[in-house]
Amino acid sequence: MGNAALGEPEETTAGIVIIGDEVLSGKVRDVNSPFLLKELYRQGVRAQRVVTIPDDVDVIAGEVRSASERFDFVLTSGGVGPTHDDLTFQGVAEAFGVPLHEDPTLSALLLRHFEDRLTQAARRMALVPVGTRLVQAGDTRFPLCVVRNVYVFPGVPEILKAKFEAVRQEFRGRPFHQVRVYTWQNETTLAACLEQTLDRFPGLAIGSYPTFDKREYRVMLTLESRDRQRLEEARDALLGLIDPAQIVRVEEPERAGAGPTGS
Amino acid sequence: MGNAALGEPEETTAGIVIIGDEVLSGKVRDVNSPFLLKELYRQGVRAQRVVTIPDDVDVIAGEVRSASERFDFVLTSGGVGPTHDDLTFQGVAEAFGVPLHEDPTLSALLLRHFEDRLTQAARRMALVPVGTRLVQAGDTRFPLCVVRNVYVFPGVPEILKAKFEAVRQEFRGRPFHQVRVYTWQNETTLAACLEQTLDRFPGLAIGSYPTFDKREYRVMLTLESRDRQRLEEARDALLGLIDPAQIVRVEEPERAGAGPTGS
Fold first, then answer.
1. CB contact, 8 Å: A31 with chain B?
2. pLDDT of residue B124
């Protein structure tokens, strides 16, 4: 956010919306957002926000609308089954002020799957916002629904993963490069070195991660940028500020994950 | 939210704010919100929202302000160390429009801990919003800081847990009771039964959780209320709607977790 103005190339951004009372009550642990965060990062996309909200149409609509305006991509998870608390499509429709309609492709798939067990509740699963794009999702039973920049994933982790693979290539940002520095120096002393480095390289993403078992190192520092040359300069500047005797090792700049575009 | 009007006793609510670029980039997995969600539920407190945001003062301020207005309790995690990206106290101060000041108790503790290694960066850890209440937190090194209804936890899971125990008794809601029904019925048929039950018991929290291995049951239904008698009536109404041959077992109403007030 605003990094472009500070010397970093422009970001491709994403927001994640996890929908479900069962997550908020601690009954079901959200494993979908950790998966999506890792994969988006690999794609070079910067996730800016994850929010977990109840099964409530107005809350869903408000979050989806706001995320859709602010981020390049929005990924939702949960709330797309046949029961009374599956309200995601209603929320997305309300977010964009469009009506729901029965999608003929989805209806045909539901009819084929449920045959004579096709109830009113199951029919609800074919009601999607007008303007929904269907993406065939590998060997999953139903396609993925995309409404403008909102990708509507189911809450079941295995199905979410399969559907993510079907659209992975749509999430493209310029890949990140990362350097890691492992050191024995304590975090409070390092804080001053990091601040000086940031003064020279504004907008660079710097992280500081203390360990508490302290067997191999005390603090891991990470420097991150889409601009490899700038990253190497920042690394050299930082290493010039830390007592060399305190440095355990420095890892070479490398692509963070395997983004789709070449470095 | 609004359940009181629908026949459910009034809720005690909470919002959780997870702060840290390292979570959003998938480098560090958030284990704090799953812990806090479970524990709040045990305390009878309804978490309404979890949001994960970057290390950005304005974003922190905006989320904390909005959560503080809407929920009884706000719990934040992360961003309280000595480095440049530890901005939580600045964000909380901005949320409430109060200045930071150096707290003498925290300063003394930092001085005792760091002795002559006390740097400018470490001193920053004593800068907290005016009006901060300090809560002694077991054998953790520093007290927990509470600003109005905002509990500022560190991101390190072990320390967060220890500090939560120190204030657990401050989070009190009326405890939830829960009934579980395990069934072979498919979810689409059950959806109609659940809707009829909800028509008779508006505002009751009902969940429907399909399994995919299907060895013991196909769908677990949960009914949840603070009002045990109402819960038993709703359970009987629901069971009257499901084919008895499809019911695997029904668990007795029980306290969900071990809330602090008697049932």
1. no
2. 84
